[in-house]
Specification:
This protein has an eight-stranded parallel beta barrel with strand order 1-2-3-4-5-6-7-8, surrounded by seven helices. Helix 2 links the parallel strand 1 and strand 2. Helices cover about 45% and strands about 15% of the residues. It is α/β, with parallel strands linked by helices. The protein contains twelve helices and eight strands.
């Protein structure tokens, strides 16, 4: 039938998933979306980003807006993950029904990560509610079993490790079936460790990064982390060399604010000269 792919999904643009891209060797680049702007999501994809993380934890973004942001990403062939505000199985299911390729779970521990995997998978592997009339299934798939198999294969659950409890359990988190990426959050982790707004150049955070990367390598999995809003290319390259596979360049609002401040300083320097 015209417009349907072999798995029954309609004409929505489907390029290689983020999981597929993990099979290569190059670093994967993305950015968090705090603005809830489809225009900025479209710009990320047009620039060649591999992924965006739509934020629902710290931002007032609601599900209807998330759907529009996903459409903008789909139009550019860019993967969308959603950072949910908490371990909320119905919200995780609804987010995935909209077409997210995965979720990011804040304040991850092994038990929270295990529960998130269950919430993200259909029975019998999990507890996700099954409905064919959803965006991720093409609104009515010709073959539900093919859709369910594709969902099981491509859906990512990404624990966000941002406190010492998560670091202490990092081997157990990576060992979980259904966990292929851990997002190591330096800002929250630094605050939790009493280090202020430090990054991985701080010796104690550097040790944590080495611990997490070593665990990822033992389990054949991957580490994501944040570079920062100032687009420090040397710092980004250092993280890549140390084993960070997915580089998140902060949030769109932070990048915009940093650029605005540079422009404002230029104007102020001209005024004082």
């Amino acid at each position: 039938m015209a417009g349907l792919s072999s798995d029954g999904v309609g004409a929505r643009n489907r390029r290689p998933s983020l999981r597929d891209r993990l099979g290569g060797n190059r670093p994967l680049v993305g950015m968090q979306c705090f603005s809830a702007s489809p225009v900025l999501v479209e710009c990320m994809g047009e620039a060649g980003f591999d992924f965006t993380v739509l934020d629902m934890e710290h931002c007032p973004t609601q599900l209807e807006t998330v759907a529009h942001l996903m459409r903008a990403a789909d139009a550019q062939g860019m993967a969308c993950l959603v950072r949910v505000p908490d371990l909320d199985a119905p919200l995780i299911g609804r987010t995935l029904d909209l077409g997210a390729q995965g979720i990011v779970l804040p304040h991850a521990t092994v038990e929270r990560a295990r529960a998130a995997v269950r919430a993200a998978r259909y029975a019998p592997q999990g507890e996700r509610g099954a409905c064919p009339v959803v965006r991720s299934a093409g609104w009515l798939p010709a073959d539900w079993d093919a859709h369910a198999a594709r969902s099981a294969r491509e859906t990512l659950v990404v624990p966000l490790v941002e406190d010492e409890a998560g670091v202490a359990q990092i081997d157990d988190i990576f060992a979980l079936d259904g966990i292929d990426i851990v997002f190591l959050g330096p800002f929250d982790l630094a605050i939790a460790m009493g280090l202020g707004a430090a990054d991985f150049r701080h010796p104690r955070l550097a040790d944590v990064l080495d611990t997490v990367v070593s665990a990822a390598r033992r389990h054949g999995k991957h580490v994501m982390s944040t570079v920062g809003a100032t687009i420090d290319e040397a710092y980004a390259e250092s993280l890549r060399e140390r084993g960070v596979r997915l580089l998140s360049f902060s949030a769109d609002v932070a990048v915009f604010m940093a650029a605005c401040r540079r422009i404002a300083r230029l104007g102020q320097s001209q005024e004082s000269s």
